[in-house]
From TrEMBL:
Gene3D superfamilies: Metalloenzyme, LuxS/M16 peptidase-like (3.30.830.10). GO terms for cellular component: mitochondrial matrix. The gene is PITRM1. It comes from Chelonoidis abingdonii (Abingdon island giant tortoise). It comes from the Eukaryota. Residues 1-21 are annotated as: Disordered. Its main location: mitochondrion. This is Pitrilysin metalloproteinase 1. Residues 486-749 form the Peptidase M16C associated domain. Monomer and homodimer; homodimerization is induced by binding of the substrate. One of its GO terms (biological process) is protein processing. InterPro entries: Metalloenz_LuxS/M16 (IPR011249), Pept_M16_N (IPR011765), Peptidase_M16_C (IPR007863), Peptidase_M16C_assoc (IPR013578), PreP_C (IPR055130). The keyword Coiled coil applies. Keywords: Coiled coil.
Length: 1029
């Protein structure tokens, strides 16, 4: 994944979810007991213990400390979790939009005093078993986190991170590479024009093609105009070229100091070791200073304000004439008031959350918009919380109504139930505390969620109008209100390009002939530096021998329910939660209905069922479950490239006491959803039909809008799905379900004046999917819950309908894989019915999706081998090796793209990709050169070992108790198969890598597919072999 990440609101990014899989046990143990023994005032390696707090509902103990000499703050969360995390954050408060904190975040990771090699951050990705490594720039802080399960690895990464943050080299050439530079279009030809280049420069150009992100940025800038929130911390592409190297170094000197730092550690490793290393390797070299980074209080307005901005047009908008975004936002309370913030979050959910909220009814169901505007709800990412709502006239009516009538008690209860479910199901993420702690708030208070719930209930009991008074205080009587609107301008990107050209001309015109010559020479110097082999011997590294040779096997129990439906039971420490999944086959579904399966999945739990209307159903789902979802399920076979499973996956979770209610909700959906669909189509029930039909239209428009909004962040994924479309039989289905074909289909459906023809397809799909034919189920729960879970699953399966007549598969070639090894001994082994297409022949396709973006998303896919083939492990290692040793350098460092690399999917598709890339055709040439590099064998054994470490870090990533056994249930991959694959990974050699590079990546050896999402391209336009969309 690309390094770093900028958000105008970093807390909304939630990067920590990947880092902290909840692998903890459900009872406290020695880690918590040891933490509780620390005494207030105790001194440990230069730190003083300030507070020790047990948080039993999250099975953790929080220890707050401060460093005596520097004043650095420290929070340690002790918990029985083997996946340990570290982060250091600095309050960074820029006063211009040059992107100085963002460019600094990139540049500090390009080499340090102790580790002077170029880019130790990326190199450590291949020298460790980290489960997470990244860096993030928010509006007012910069964060450097990592996590790992290996103690030695933790110390290695901590050493690199500390040195990078506190003692970076900050070389000028690194600043030019990561930030911005003037360079000839062809750096080796001084006759080509000078242009702007730089990784952050291109990243931010790409970031602001996302209209939602652009709107969020304007919202923050205008609502909090007095200080750092008035600027773009990530950098405005038109302001980035104003930043100088000297300014970058000065910003580091004033902001990256221990006195302005907050350290966080989490997990079961000893706190003393962390403190000793941080103290000795970094903090002893500093003395306390006054950082002067505090953000002054935003002055409240006397009168509301309005502002209008422009954006680029959305070519996938459901209605091109209705692309205006409008919001009404209020400045609320100081986010360090944790209970008030908790209350306002609840109040926000009551106002805008789900189909029962007043704003959903007044805005979306009234067809005033296709979806809520960005950031609707309570945001707490700056020093002040704010609420963003929608449409001023509706807002004023609804807030008056909410103030008079209050809120239904049942809706309040279901929100409190949701909080309880999340507490039990979720892991801790340090990033949820970052903003509050950044402004001197108490991060431990944020962890004490149960106390907040108790306090909230007490306030409601003592004062029944508690919430109405908050509505009056923060909305009705609050003059700090911003009405922001944004509308598209067809020439927006042309105007931006013109402004950039003017900026470029201004910069070039100030250069003397001597400076132009120096610019050319510096460009050559940077290329030479980027191409020079790096001595990485200074960096710490694990060895392949540090990797566990075997994996622990997960105990699974197989049984049949309702006589013949296979169920997988996996007993796990799920902390009182039950996780249910089911897969239903698509094999009998007529081909003409398949394009509508994703739409069916997205609406099926939102249309009402049986006696429950859609509002009542939404309320029951929130009250009795932690969520119910349905999604398409396309899984390639592990042994044959041309075989795959096609189905629909049903997923849900609940507190154990609510299991009967959750399964009843599924029963109602399976048995009675048809009644809801028929109601919409029934002319006799006019009022109900119109309301249901309008609700369906709202869901369609929301789905279409969300797909369109996701393209700027996931363009490389869409390009890769498209490029693989014609390489395997499953590829066409993937493109139909999750590719650009689905985006375009949903746009067409959302634009229909009469939506009933699409609606009529849903009951037909229901007949093929929502029955017990060709179904399998799984349950993850504690051992004590398994007996009840088994009974509830049995009742559910006996209660749902079976097809009255046997339906034959639409495609006749269906196979059932034969179990091997120990699985052959288990007569209850789950088998999957796979589709094969013996006559399928892969072919090349090249597609250009023309989008009004200033950057490209590029994908090239190659058909190789399935998971169990001996060559698969070699290709997996090769993908990582090519990314680290060739593609990163050529695509990111030299090419200026935000990210790029190679991956091998479970389906056997080898993918090259780039992300927010200023290039396209030349990137395909880079992919070709990467293949030639691999065939030449220009890599050492150390390079191979590092690639293995990176691959094993992903293979051995922590698995939450809720997801144990899912690889077997969903993908058909057993622990035995994973162990065999593990042994194949260990055995990969240089000869194997050269062999697979020649066998699959050499020109003409395998079938390739290519795709680009991006702007007009004259080379592609002239080439008839490209399909233009």
């Amino acid at each position: 994944a690309p390094r770093g990440g900028w958000r105008c609101s970093a807390d909304s990014d939630q990067p920590g979810s990947a880092a902290l899989g909840p692998s903890w046990r459900w009872k406290s143990g020695s880690v918590n007991e040891r933490a509780l023994q620390y005494k207030i005032g105790e001194r440990i390696h230069g730190f003083t213990v300030n507070q020790v707090t047990a948080v039993p509902e999250l099975f953790l103990t929080a220890v707050k400390l401060s460093h005596e000499n520097t004043g650095a703050k420290y929070l340690h969360v002790a918990r029985e979790d083997s996946n340990n995390l570290f982060s250091v954050q600095f309050r960074t408060t820029p006063l211009d939009s040059t992107g100085v904190p963002h460019i600094l975040e990139h540049t500090v990771l390009c080499g340090s005093q102790k580790y002077p090699c170029r880019d130790p951050f990326f190199k450590m990705l291949n020298r460790s078993l980290s489960t997470f490594m990244n860096a993030f720039t928010a509006s007012d802080y910069t964060l450097y986190p990592f996590s790992t399960q290996n103690p030695k690895d933790f110390q290695n990464l901590l050493s690199v991170y500390l040195d990078a943050a506190f003692f970076p080299c900050l070389r000028q050439l690194d600043f030019w590479q990561e930030g911005w530079r003037l360079e000839h279009e062809n750096p080796t030809d001084p006759q080509t024009p000078l242009v702007f280049k730089g990784i952050v420069f291109n990243e931010m150009k790409g970031a602001f093609t996302d209209n939602e992100r652009l709107f969020s940025q304007h919202l923050q800038n205008k609502l909090l105009p007095d200080h750092t929130y008035a600027v773009i911390s990530g950098g405005d592409p038109l302001s980035i070229p104003d930043l100088t190297w000297e300014q970058l170094k000065q910003f580091h000197a004033t902001h990256y100091h221990p006195s302005n730092a907050r350290f966080f550690t989490y997990g079961n490793f000893p706190l003393e070791q962390h403190l000793k290393q941080i103290h000795e390797e970094a903090l002893t070299k500093f003395h306390r200073i006054e950082p002067n980074t505090a953000i002054p209080v935003q002055q409240l307005w006397d009168n509301p304000r309005e502002h209008h901005v422009k954006c680029g047009s959305d070519s996938f908008a459901t209605d091109p004439t209705k692309q205006t975004i409008i919001s009404v936002s209020f400045l609320l309370t100081d986010i360090t008031d944790t209970f008030e913030t908790f209350t306002l979050n609840l109040l926000s959910s009551l106002l805008v959350g789900g189909p029962n909220s007043p704003f959903y009814k007044a805005l979306l169901e009234a067809s005033l918009g296709t979806d809520f505007s960005p950031d609707v709800g309570c945001m707490c990412a700056s020093s002040w919380g704010c609420v963003c709502t929608h449409h001023k006239s509706i807002l004023l009516k609804k807030k008056n109504l909410s103030q008079r009538k209050g809120f239904e008690e049942e809706r309040i209860e279901l929100l409190l139930h949701k909080i309880e479910s999340r507490m039990k199901a979720s892991s801790l993420s340090s990033f949820g505390t970052s903003s509050c702690w950044n402004h001197e708030g108490d991060p431990v208070e944020l962890l004490k969620i149960a106390d907040k719930v108790t306090q909230f209930r007490q306030h409601l009991k003592e004062n029944p109008t508690f919430l109405q008074e908050k509505v009056k205080q923060y909305f009705k009587d609050n003059p700090h209100r911003l009405t922001l609107s944004m509308s598209p301008d067809e020439s927006y990107y042309e105007k931006q390009a013109k402004l950039e050209a003017e900026k470029l001309k201004q910069k070039v015109n100030t250069l003397s002939e001597e400076e132009k010559k120096q610019t050319y020479e510096k460009g050559l110097e940077l290329i030479a530096l980027q191409s020079k082999p790096q001595d990485t011997s200074c960096l710490p590294a694990l060895k392949v021998s540090d990797i566990a040779p075997t994996i622990p096997f997960t105990e699974l129990e197989m049984a049949f329910a309702a006589d013949e439906i296979p169920v997988q039971y996996c007993a796990q420490p799920t902390n009182g939660m039950v996780y249910f999944r089911a897969v239903s086959s698509l094999n009998t579904l007529p081909e003409e209905l398949k394009p509508y399966v994703p739409l069916f999945c997205s609406v099926i739990t939102k249309m009402g069922c049986g006696a429950l209307g859609y509002r009542e159903q939404a309320q029951q789902i929130e009250l009795k479950t932690g969520g119910m979802s349905v999604s398409p399920h396309i899984i390639p076979d592990d042994s044959h490239l041309d075989a795959y499973e096609q189905g629909v996956l049903f997923s849900s979770l609940c507190l154990d006491r609510n299991l009967p209610d959750m399964m009843h909700l599924w029963s109602e959906i399976f048995n009675n959803i048809l009644l809801s669909l028929q109601t919409i189509l029934c002319i006799n029930q006019l009022n109900g039909r119109l309301e249901q039909e309008e609700h369906f239209r709202v869901l369609v428009k929301m789905t279409a809008q969300e797909l369109s909004n996701g393209i700027p962040d996931s363009g490389h994924l869409y390009a890769s799905v498209r490029a693989s479309k014609t390489l395997t039989p499953a590829g066409e289905l993937q493109e139909m379900f999750i590719g650009m074909d689905q985006v375009k289909l949903m746009k067409r459906i959302a634009e229909m004046s009469d939506i009933k023809p699409v609606l009529r397809k849903l009951p037909r799909i229901k007949k093929y999917l929502l029955n017990s034919d060709n179904m399998r189920c799984s349950v993850n729960a504690t051992p004590q819950q398994m007996s009840q879970a088994s009974k509830e699953i049995e009742n559910f399966l006996k209660g749902i309908t079976r097809s009255k007549k046997e339906r034959k598969p639409v495609r006749p070639h269906v196979i059932e894989p034969v179990p091997v090894g120990r699985e052959r001994l288990n007569c209850s082994q789950i088998t999957r019915k796979l589709i094969t297409e013996p006559t399928f022949k892969p072919c090349q396709m090249k597609t250009h999706f023309l989008l009004p973006f200033p950057v490209n998303y590029v994908g090239e896919c190659i058909r190789t081998v399935p998971y169990t083939a001996p060559d698969y492990a070699s290709l997996q290692i090769l993908a990582r090796l090519m990314t680290a040793k060739f593609l990163h350098r050529e695509i990111r460092e030299k090419g200026g793209a935000y990210g790029g690399g190679a991956t091998l999917s479970h389906s056997g598709i080898f993918t090259f990709y780039s992300y927010r890339d200023p290039n396209s055709i030349s990137t395909f040439s880079t992919f070709e050169k990467a293949a030639e590099w691999a065939q030449s064998g220009e890599f050492a054994q150390q390079d191979i070992d590092e690639a293995k470490l990176a691959v094993f870090a992903a293979v051995d990533a922590p698995i939450a108790p809720s997801d144990k056994g899912m690889n077997h249930f969903l993908n058909g991959i057993s622990d035995e198969m994973k162990q065999r694959h593990r042994e194949q990974l260990f055995a990969v050699s240089s000869d194997h890598l050269i062999d697979v590079a020649n066998k699959y990546l050499a020109g003409g050896k395998s079938t390739h597919g290519l795709a680009v999402l991006g702007p007009e391209n004259p080379h592609i336009a002239k080439d008839p072999s490209w399909v233009k969309r």
